[in-house]
C-alpha cells in the first residue's frame, strides 16, 4: 500500500459505500478529483487515499471518515441472495440492496446479538418438497394449523429469522433473503403496500426453506416462492371454508381482516381453488385495476420488526439512541434508519412519529 | 383390532378448516340448517304433528343439494336414504334430527329415534374408517372408498344446535362411537335471519418474540 496514504484505510468499505451510493468508479473519481484507475486501486488495496482524499470520499459518499478505517467487511455474495421481482432490478440496484444487507448482517446484527439473546433459528430445510407441500409442512412444523397469520414478520422473527428493511432508494426491489452462517435474513422494502410486504415476507420465507442450499435465482425459483407464499398465507382448506358465497371486491376485502393478504392475492386464490368463476375473476380484476393496484380496499396496518423495536427500544432506555448506535457502527444515521423500518421511536425528541405516541412502552419478554 | 383413542371434535376455526377439507363450507352448511328451521317454523297447530319435523328434514335435504350439486356433488338414494354424494363418490352426507346432545362437545349425540336399516348400512359401510391411517398402512389396505357424514340437527324453542358427524360403529340401534364431530354454530329459533360467523377471535395464533438483554460484564 502507498506509504503516503492513510494506512488503516479499508478497501472493502469503499466498495460497499460506493455500491450504496450507486456510483461507478469513474463518476466517484470525478467527484473526488482522482482518476477511475485510482479509485480502482483504492478498492483493490494496492494504493491508499491521502487524508484529504479520504475526507473527500467521506463527503461525497456521505459516510463518516471512521467508516473507512474500521475492520474489513465481507460483502454478501450477490448470487446467494434471492430477489423478488428480479427482472425489474438492474445490477446497480441489486448491488445497492446487497450492500445495505451487508451492513445489517455484518454490523447491525452482530451489534444486537452481542447485547441480546434473540430467538433461536427454527427454519427447516424443505428443499425436497413442492412449494405447496413445503407450505403445509412448515405450518405443521410451526404448529400453526390452518389459522390466519396475525403478523408475518413477528412469526418469522419468533422462529429465528432476522428481518430488516431495505433502504427506500431500492424501490425496484421488493425484498430479498439470504442464509449467512446458519442464520436466515430477510430484507423488506417498506415502500410497498402493507399487504404486498406481507406477501413478500412469505415469499422470502419460501426461498429460505426451499432454496437453502441452491442458488435461488431465476423465474422458476421466484415462481416456487410465490406458490409457497400463497399456500402458506392462504391455506387451501381454510380458504375454501371461508370463501364467501359470492366473491366480490367487498366480500373479499372483508376476508382481508382475517387473512392479511391483498385483495388481489385472495381473489386469485379463490379463483385457483374454483371458488370464483372465470367471469367473476375477470370482473374482479377489472375493478381492482380501475381503482389502481396500489390502492388497497380496506388497507391493513404495516408490519415492522418486533425484534428491532424491542432491542433498540431497550437500548434507547439505556441512553443509547439511534445516533449513538450509528456512531458505534460508523454508519450514517440514514443507513441505520433504512435498515430498521425507520423506527423513529428509538430516536426520541421531536422526531417522534405521531402514530407512535399511542404505543405503550415496550418491555422485554 | 385398533380403535380410535377418542372422538375428534372440531370447533371454531378447526371446524371451518375441516369442512373445507371435506369440500364443504360453514356458511352453506349453516344456511342449510337455517332453511330447515324456517320451514319448521311454518307449521301450525292445524298441521299433522310430524309436519314441522318432516318439513325441516325435507327443506334441509333440498337446500343441501341445491347448495352443493352446482359444485359437483350428486343426489343419491341407496337403501332408501336421501344422500348427497361427492363427485368422486367417496363421501356422502345425510341429515337427521338429533337428540339434545347435538352440538355439545362432551355430550353423546344420537340421531333421534332408532336408526333405520338404511342409516345403519351407511354407518357400517363407513365403519372401517374408525381406524387411523397408520392402521391401513400396517394392514396393507387402501383407504375405504366411502365415508358417510350425518348432519344432525337438534331444535328446541330456545336453541337450534347442529353438527356434521361421522359415525364409526353401531351398537344396539345407536351410533356407538363417533369418529369425528364438526360442531356448527348455534342458531336462535326466534331470529333466523342470515348471519356471518366470524370464528377468528377464539383461536388466534399467539406469537411471542423473546428479545432478552444479556447481562453486561
Q: What is the structure about, briefly put?
A:
Chain A has 365 residues and is α+β, with helices and mostly antiparallel strands. Chain A is built from 16 helices and 5 strands.
Description:
The complex is a heterodimer of chains A (365) and B (217). Chain A is α+β, with helices and mostly antiparallel strands and 365 residues long. Chain A is 50% helix and 6% strand. Chain A is built from 16 helices and five strands. Chain A has helices spanning 11-21, 25-32, 36-44, 51-61, 91-115, 131-141, 152-158, 194-210, 219-233, 236-242, 249-259, 263-272, 278-291, 306-317, 322-328, 333-339; strands spanning 82-83, 116-117, 162-166, 175-180, 183-189. A four-stranded mixed beta sheet of chain A has the order 1-4-5-3, with helices on both faces. In chain A, helix 2 packs across helix 3 (36-44), helix 5 (91-115) packs across helix 16 and helix 6 crosses helix 9 (219-233). The longest helix of chain A is centred in the first third of the chain and has 25 residues, at 91-115. The relative contact order of chain A is 0.11. The model of chain A is unreliable at 348-361 (pLDDT under 50). Chain B has 217 residues and is of the alpha/beta class. Chain B has one domain (7-214). Chain B has a seven-stranded mixed beta sheet with strand order 1-7-6-5-4-3-2, with helices on both faces. In chain B, a hairpin with a 6-residue loop joins strand 2 and strand 3. In chain B, helix 2 (26-40) packs antiparallel against helix 3. Residues 1-5 and 126-144 of chain B have low confidence and may be disordered. Chain A binds chain B through residues 114-119, 144-151, 154-155, 157-158, 235-245, 258, 306-307, 310-311, 314, 364-365, and chain B through 13-14, 16-21, 23-28, 198, 200, 203-205, 207-214. Strand 2 of chain A pairs antiparallel with strand 8 (212-213) of chain B, so a sheet runs across the interface.
Amino acid at each position: 500500500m502507498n506509504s503516503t496514504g492513510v494506512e488503516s484505510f479499508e478497501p472493502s468499505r469503499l466498495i460497499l459505500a460506493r455500491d450504496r451510493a450507486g456510483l461507478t468508479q469513474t463518476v466517484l473519481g470525478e467527484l473526488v478529483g482522482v482518476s477511475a484507475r485510482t479509485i480502482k486501486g483504492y478498492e483493490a488495496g494496492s494504493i491508499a487515499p491521502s487524508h484529504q482524499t479520504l475526507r473527500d470520499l467521506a463527503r461525497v459518499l456521505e459516510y463518516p471518515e471512521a467508516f473507512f478505517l474500521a475492520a474489513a467487511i465481507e460483502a454478501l455474495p450477490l448470487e446467494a441472495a434471492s430477489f423478488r421481482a428480479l427482472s425489474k432490478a438492474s445490477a446497480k440496484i441489486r448491488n445497492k440492496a446487497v450492500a445495505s444487507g451487508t451492513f445489517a448482517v455484518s454490523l447491525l446484527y452482530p451489534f444486537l446479538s452481542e447485547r441480546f439473546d434473540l430467538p433461536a433459528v427454527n427454519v427447516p430445510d424443505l428443499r425436497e418438497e413442492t412449494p405447496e407441500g413445503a407450505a403445509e409442512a412448515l405450518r405443521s412444523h410451526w404448529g400453526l394449523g390452518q389459522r390466519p397469520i396475525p403478523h408475518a414478520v413477528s412469526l418469522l422473527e419468533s422462529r429465528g429469522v432476522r428481518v430488516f428493511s431495505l433502504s427506500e432508494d431500492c424501490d425496484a426491489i421488493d425484498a430479498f433473503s439470504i442464509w449467512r452462517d446458519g442464520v436466515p435474513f430477510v430484507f423488506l422494502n417498506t415502500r410497498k403496500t402493507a399487504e404486498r410486504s406481507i406477501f413478500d415476507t412469505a415469499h422470502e420465507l419460501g426461498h429460505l426453506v426451499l432454496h437453502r442450499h441452491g442458488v435461488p435465482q431465476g423465474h422458476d425459483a421466484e415462481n416456487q416462492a410465490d406458490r409457497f407464499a400463497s399456500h402458506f398465507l392462504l391455506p387451501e382448506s381454510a380458504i375454501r371454508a371461508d370463501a364467501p358465497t359470492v366473491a366480490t371486491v367487498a366480500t373479499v376485502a372483508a376476508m382481508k381482516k382475517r387473512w392479511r393478504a391483498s385483495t388481489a392475492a385472495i381473489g386469485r386464490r379463490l379463483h385457483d381453488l374454483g371458488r370464483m368463476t372465470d367471469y367473476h375473476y375477470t370482473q374482479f380484476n377489472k375493478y381492482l385495476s380501475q381503482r389502481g393496484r396500489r390502492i388497497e380496499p380496506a388497507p391493513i396496518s404495516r408490519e415492522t420488526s418486533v425484534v428491532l423495536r424491542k432491542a433498540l427500544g431497550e437500548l434507547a432506555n439505556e441512553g443509547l439512541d439511534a445516533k449513538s448506535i450509528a456512531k458505534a457502527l460508523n454508519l450514517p444515521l440514514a443507513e441505520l434508519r433504512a435498515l430498521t423500518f425507520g423506527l423513529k421511536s428509538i430516536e426520541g425528541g421531536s422526531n417522534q412519529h405521531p402514530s407512535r405516541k399511542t404505543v405503550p412502552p415496550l418491555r422485554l419478554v | 383390532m385398533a380403535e380410535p383413542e377418542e372422538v375428534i371434535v372440531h370447533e371454531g376455526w378447526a371446524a371451518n378448516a375441516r369442512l373445507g377439507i371435506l369440500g364443504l363450507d360453514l356458511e352453506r352448511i349453516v344456511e342449510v340448517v337455517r332453511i330447515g328451521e324456517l320451514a319448521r317454523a311454518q307449521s301450525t297447530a292445524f298441521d299433522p304433528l310430524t309436519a314441522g319435523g318432516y318439513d325441516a328434514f325435507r327443506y334441509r335435504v333440498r337446500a343441501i343439494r341445491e347448495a352443493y350439486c352446482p359444485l359437483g356433488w350428486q343426489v343419491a338414494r341407496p337403501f332408501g336414504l336421501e344422500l348427497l354424494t361427492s363427485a368422486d363418490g367417496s363421501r356422502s352426507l345425510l341429515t337427521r334430527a338429533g337428540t339434545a346432545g347435538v352440538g355439545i362437545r362432551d355430550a353423546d349425540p344420537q340421531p333421534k329415534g332408532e336408526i333405520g336399516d338404511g342409516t345403519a348400512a351407511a354407518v357400517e359401510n363407513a365403519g372401517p374408517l374408525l381406524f387411523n391411517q397408520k392402521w391401513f398402512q400396517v394392514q396393507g389396505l387402501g383407504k375405504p372408498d366411502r365415508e358417510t357424514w350425518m348432519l344432525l340437527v337438534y331444535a328446541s324453542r330456545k336453541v337450534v344446535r347442529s353438527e356434521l358427524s361421522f359415525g364409526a360403529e353401531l351398537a344396539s340401534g345407536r351410533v356407538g362411537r363417533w369418529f369425528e364431530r364438526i360442531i356448527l354454530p348455534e342458531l336462535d329459533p326466534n331470529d333466523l335471519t342470515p348471519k356471518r360467523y366470524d370464528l377468528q377471535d377464539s383461536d388466534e395464533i399467539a406469537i411471542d418474540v423473546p428479545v432478552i438483554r444479556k447481562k453486561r460484564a
